[in-house]
Predict the structure of Ubiquitin-like modifier-activating enzyme 5.
Amino acid sequence: MSTLTMDAVSSEFELTDAELHLYSRQILLDGWDIEAQEKLKFSNVGIVGCGGIGCALAELLARAGVGKITLIDPDTIEMSNLQRQLAFTPNDLGLYKAETLAKRLAQINPNVQVVSINQALTAENAESMIEHQDLVLDGCDQFETRYLVNQSCVKLNVPLISASAIGLQGQLFMMEGDSACYACLFPSEHQADTSLRCADSGVLATTPNVMASLQAHHALLYLGLGKMPLRQKLLLWDGLSFKQRILSFEKDTDCQVCQAR
């Protein structure tokens, strides 16, 4: 039986020459070094939703060098998706979003391990999909799924960065550790219309891609540098006025999700 030496273990965590060249512009950044890049390489990230936000988000993380990306989405590609979902073309109509996006990421960066799950996140499978992630990124367009993702991340103590985009506006926030959660910010009993989606209200092609870029940026700061600028804060972006606000909020002492932890 072979024995794995410390030298062999440490070499597994080293960037190859090809990776050093690929990520050289990031490694040159002031405050970002090889160690930060190696942290990306050995990060597991789960993305819930492969639509307008998920497509751009996944591609940015793959190009940046996140080592493993798990894509979760049960939907197939429709003509109306092509207006904003950058990974898809008319040739992809009818195919699964997660599977098609995974193939694109593999072409963009073969160093990244991509897993596609063509299933909906449910109460029965949510924890098994989330428990091994270093970070979960939610970009779905259904409140029911958002609450389920939040609940699972709170229970499993997995950090969550949640982004939404509708019309000309977007929101972004982070839950980590014992911080306030999504249910503190948006109690389910206060949601007048939990069916609100882009399919009902419309969305400009650029809005989800702006929010995806902000979400990916925050994810990289967290994974590479351990920074959490939006922990327990809500970023509001208005695409019509170009105004952006960041609001702090507190834990809801009556929250049935994080206070029950």
Notes: The CA atoms of residues 22 and 47 lie 23 Å apart. The two ends are 43 Å apart (CA to CA). The chain has eleven helices and eight strands. The longest strand covers residues 160-166.
